[in-house]
Amino acid sequence: MPDVEITNLSKTFRDFFGRRRVQALDGLSLSLRGGEVFGLLGPNGSGKSTTFKIAVGLLRPSSGQVTINGHKPGSLAARRATGFLPEDSTLLPFLNAAETLRLHGALAGLDRATAAKKADELLERVDLKHAGKRRVKGFSKGMQRRLGIASVLIADPDVFILDEPTSGLDPLGAVLVKDLIADLRKQGKAILISSHLLGELENVCDRVAFLNKGKLLREGTLDELLREHDVHELRLSPPDPEAIKALAALAAEKGLKIMSSRAPMRTLEQFYIKILGKDES
Amino acid sequence: MIRRVLAITGAALMEALRARLSPLIALVLVAAVPMTALVLGEDADTRAWLVRSVTAEGLRVLLPLGAILGGGFLLKPNLKRGWTILPARRAEYFTGGALAGALVLMLSSALFAGGGLIGNLAFGSDLTVTSQGVEINKQRERDGVTVYAEGKGEGYTWANPNYNEELLAELPAQPGNDLSGTIEFRMVWTAEGAPRDRAPVAVALIDADGRHELESRVLSRYRLHFHGRVNGPAQLVITPTDPVLIIGTTPDRIRVEVDRTGATGSILRLWVLCVAAALLCLSAVLLVRALATAPTAVLAGLLLLSVLTMLPNLGPTSGMARDRRAAVEGVRPDITLAQRLEDELAAIPRLHPETAFDEYLGARVVPGNAWGDAGLRLLAALAMLPIGALLFRARQIAR
User: Fold this and answer.
1) Which residues of A touch B12 (CB under 8 A)?
2) Please, which residues bridge with residue A6 across strands?
3) Which of A87, A256, B165, B335 is the most buried (most CB within 10 A)?
4) Pairing relation of β-strands B223-229 and B215-220?
5) Chain B partners of A84 at a C-beta cutoff of 8 Å?
6) Residues in B touching A107 (Cβ below 8 Å)
7) How many Cβ atoms are within 10 Å of B212's Cβ, its own excluded?
8) Å from B82 to nearest chain A CA?
9) Element (H, E) at B220
């Protein structure tokens, strides 16, 4: 079972003379198991990307440690187990989409035929089949992001570390990525994901942690963190006015206060997906 | 690992070849030499000289500069280019990037040298094939008696004008009666007065007709050309003429013209030499880049280039003067730290063996020792790559 353990992790960036410049992380401890999506939330500069970079071996911690499936970041075993999508899409601009995926397949140790086959499958999965022969240079930011995600998927790692995976994506692209993440969760993969857009993580994460200035503020399941224990919401369909009146009367009889009663509003994202989904189909 | 390095190399190479300006740059590289000769040369001789000059200087000066600048900006250790999805394989990325850079450098310089070859075929003339002197000894007139002394074999044999010493070079057998060639020598100033002659040597020949002077022409500060008639086996006599300058040379610095041939082989040798030197610069810059920023790496490369091209010229003569005095007086004088440093710096091998370029510029065939020189520089370049890869792997990537 894949897992990520972050124990008492601290990182201090120092200047040339060794003077402390920024305390990016301060005693962060988290754990993540397979089949779980863990979200790191926090404002810019809260330490999310630093945590990720330590987890993939790009930075060394000042103290504490990270293990990926029990291995140190940067070790061969940890590298094989990890797929990392950095915040910026980091693709070679003059390769086309298929070549990019084949390159990442080769780097992941796949033979040529397998890499080509998986590249085709993944292009379809991230909705870039039509752009397989186009150079990455001409891709929109969202297309580059989707290709970046496909590049991570081709190695089939156990642990996914995704830094702002929906950044630059339109709502349909974001839904596609969220569906991918849900699929990966079903496959038993461990997924560590970050965003400063809270709504992005709400639909996909099992647990979240809030960071600020390198410190862990709160951590827990969405249910634990978001449930309002002193309020109950009831939705009716169809919205029969007589039945609503009767329920309101019953509530008053029981001494309950009705805080709101109205037709629910769709979110803009839901509306956008509905109309564009219809249009594209 | 090798497969991954090759995959990264292939992708980086494809990136370079598909860049928008690549076809134009390739065209410019091929056309540079012939077009320069065509536009600037008014007659056949000028065009032939321009072809040799632009080819040699382009390879000697521009190629290492290009390697330094290209090497400085070749790698992106931050998270901006294509490799971070496999973040921990930095050593492989470094090696793959370096190999791709080396291949681009070889390809672009080959295009330029190819242009030089085209120019030579179109406007150039054949180069002179030379053979080197067999051995050098020396003779001295003392009380009307000529005393002979053995030379230093392959090393420098010196002649001091204050002791009426002359160098005697055995020449290889000549196919005809005309003799022409070049001498390259070094000078040691005795500090007993100011040097006065531009060319402080006179050249004569001893053959079946006896001793007779040869006509000579100064080519550069340390080179002169000689020619004259020869009859049978001969010895070249090199006489120092300035009383404050001791003259020394080696057998391979005395070259006699024996034939004429096309420039293809010489351009190939120059190209190999220059590519090896440029790869040395590239490796050194990448080594610095593994830990530093691009401007720092470029500055380090420029510093290396200036050390390897200028410092060996700075102070060899004072060291040779000390050696000479030590040999004559039998006592090694104490030398200061600054003098020791000067000696050490003067002993650094040059980035390019100047003789190869001088020969080519002088319309003579580039000597065959170019291969060995190039091989040594390539080995030095290769030795730096794994060190750079290890340093790059250890580097932290904060941005």
Assistant:
1) 92
2) A30, A66
3) B165
4) antiparallel
5) 84-87
6) 4, 7-8, 86, 89
7) 14
8) 4
9) strand B215-220
Least confident of A103-107, A156-160, B336-340, B374-378: B336-340
Domain coverage including residue B329:
2-126+262-394
Q: Do B3 and A135 touch (CB under 8 A)?
A: no
Picking from B227, B260, B293, the residue at the C-terminal end of a domain is B260
Residues 14-53 in B contacting A (C-alpha not used; CB under 8 Å): 14-15, 18-19
* Cα–Cα dist B52/B123, whole Å: 10
| pLDDT, tens digit (0-9, with 9 covering 90-100), for A44-78 | 888 888 898 898 888 889 999 999 988 998 788 88
Which domain covers residue A272, as residue numbers? Answer: 241-280
The CATH number of whichever domain residue B231 belongs to comes to 2.60.120
- Cβ distance B82 to A92 less than 8 Å, yes or no, reads yes
Strands A36-41 and A63-68 turn out to be unpaired
Its ipTM equals 0.77
Query: What stretch of H or E contains B63?
Result: helix B63-74
- Residue B396 to residue A58, Cβ atoms within 8 A: yes
| pLDDT of amino acid A190 | 92
Q: What are phi and psi of B258, to 5 degrees?
A: -125, -20
Kindly report the nearest CA distance between residue A148 and chain B, in angstroms: 8
Given this model, what pLDDT does residue A281 score? 47
Q: Are residues B235 and B343 in the same domain?
A: no
Least Cα distance to B48 among B58, B57, B38 occurs for: B38
pLDDT of residue B330: 67
